């Protein structure tokens, strides 16, 4: 939603400007990282101002480490947000993917560029073209996430952020 995008942008800009902030952790709510965009919004008139791609670029350009704490699902734009982060920690039961291709849409926030850079072209092509959801254990083997945990993902992400 526009509210979430604006809050993410505002929070990142505040964190970058605050010298007391040493790292940032991005997490979802209610056990889910993010399911991405609501496709019903695609039929509404073009929105002014805020878009996901520039916010992900803002995450990527941050001089402070940004860690994604992935719980539940990171799908579509949610996975693209995680791809923009410098580190990714996932709960062992998390699932990730770019399912928008199953309804004829391409990932629109540069996930098709970031994913191959991170995990290589063959694995990325599989995920991008099939829209399948991959479990955290496979994501770890592919290099999509840096660590999987069975405990509180946000706490583990904060520990990693403090370490780096």
UniProtKB/TrEMBL annotation:
GO terms, biological process: fatty acid beta-oxidation
Catalyzed chemical reaction(s): (3Z)-hexenoyl-CoA = (2E)-hexenoyl-CoA; (3S)-hydroxyhexanoyl-CoA = (2E)-hexenoyl-CoA + H2O; (3E)-decenoyl-CoA = (2E)-decenoyl-CoA; (3E)-hexenoyl-CoA = (2E)-hexenoyl-CoA
Gene Ontology terms: cellular component: peroxisome
Keywords: Isomerase, Lyase, Multifunctional enzyme
Pfam families in UniProt: ECH_1
Lineage: Eukaryota, Metazoa, Chordata, Craniata, Vertebrata
Family: In the C-terminal section; belongs to the 3-hydroxyacyl-CoA dehydrogenase family.
GO molecular function terms noted in the UniProt entry: (3S)-3-hydroxyacyl-CoA dehydrogenase (NAD+) activity; delta(3)-delta(2)-enoyl-CoA isomerase activity; enoyl-CoA hydratase activity
Protein name from the UniProt record: Peroxisomal bifunctional enzyme
Domain of life per record: Eukaryota
Cross-referenced InterPro entries: ClpP/crotonase-like_dom_sf (IPR029045), Enoyl-CoA_hyd/isom_CS (IPR018376), Enoyl-CoA_hydra/iso (IPR001753)
CDD domains linked: crotonase-like
